[in-house]
Amino acid sequence: MRRSSTDETPYRRSPSLDSKGSAPLRYSGEYEYHSSPFVFGLRTTPGSKKATASYTTAQGRKYVVFYLDLSLIFLLELRRCRMAEGCLRALRYGMVFFNLLFWLGGCGLLGVGVWLSITQGNFATLSSSLPSLSAANLLIAVGSIIMVIGCLGCVGAVKENRPLLLSFFILLLLILLLEILFMVLFFSYQDQIDLYAQSDLKKGLQLFGTEGNIGLTNAWSIVQTDFRCCGVTNHTDWFDVYNATRVPDSCCLEFSDDCGLENPGTWWTAPCYERVKGWLQENLVALWIFALCTALTQILGLVFSMTIFCHAVKVDTFYA
To answer: pTM of the full predicted structure?
Structure first.
């Protein structure tokens, strides 16, 4: 059955926006809904002001708490982003500073090595089987490697260049792994290394004082004078070299020309190999501290470079 338009109903049609003087929609005689181009809201009749005030206050509190939560979250995120950016900047500046120091140190080692190579020849060469293993060549090689790695790390950190940072990380990781491998092999085969080193050094004595081996001659003279020793395992090692009861003048207690031809009582008799080995054992703590500092520096370099590399990847991905 269709309801007549004259039947009473709690709802009334809302007026259109263009109609004038139309009555607003009323609901159960208590709330009014105003519809206009600018105002939409609930308004109570004069008899329900207390209920409206309570409703409006509760809703307002909810909105205030919601906006305060959003503001707090935004400020915390902004603070965290600023702290992360500050930490990353500190890492980048620290990496640049230390790699710059490494690069300068590499330049210094390279310069000293070149100077020794030009002025002293193969300085501090004790091994006959490895004549290239001289102090000058070692300084040149180590200085060149440090210069390359320091340059890669410094430029890569400044530019945040991913290829340079990755190259720095790989080279530094390879060097660290080689150092660990060398230490493991050294302690595993220490006895065999001792025997081989003594045999090789004795062969090197045969080249003492010969033409073209000034580096080996100078090295033995310095070692025997500074450590007050003579020969590899005994002063008699020189008897096979000269085919006579004779030692170099650097074995003498008081140096003078041809003092090695005099009474054996005026010679040093301690073996140089044991003296050098004892000196290393006495300074073992300092050597371990140096090794640990070097390893720690390399590990920090690996961590810093990978952190900056990952940040550069994220930035490139975000702006891609």
So the answer is: 0.65
